[in-house]
Amino acid sequence: MIAELVAFALIGLAVGGGAALLLHDLFPVPRPLTAATGLVSAFVLGSVARAVLGGGHALLTVLIAAVSSVLLVSLLARPATAGRHRSARSRETLRPAKG
Fold first, then answer.
1. What is the percentage of the chain residues whose pLDDT exceeds 90?
2. In this structure, are residues 42 and 9 in contact, taking their beta carbons and an 8 Å threshold?
3. pLDDT tens digits, residue range 53-71?
4. CA distance 97 to 81
5. Of residues 27 and 47, which shows the higher confidence score?
6. Domain count along the chain
7. Is 36 within a domain?
8. Can you give the residue range of the structural domain that contains 48?
9. Is the pTM of this model over 0.90?
10. How far, CA to CA in Å, does 32 sit from each of 11, 49, 50, 72, 84?
């Protein structure tokens, strides 16, 4: 049981922290919120999976915690806002010259 909780915590932090740090353009929400969403979702849904499946399925409950954490963190992503932080000058250089 303790090993599963540690696995849930590591998975949740890896998913949430990885999304916040590596894909920061897609996540306009604050980084701690993204990391906390990964952590809490892995704990809660991993615990629910353990309660439903029983104690003999540690690998499956950890897998369910990982998948559910990825899915819930992905709900925070906003791909439409990615790249909007570019300045007006850099957008002008991307436009073709008129003429």
1. 51
2. yes
3. 988 898 999 999 999 999 9
4. 26
5. 47
6. 1
7. yes
8. 2-82
9. no
10. 16, 25, 27, 15, 21
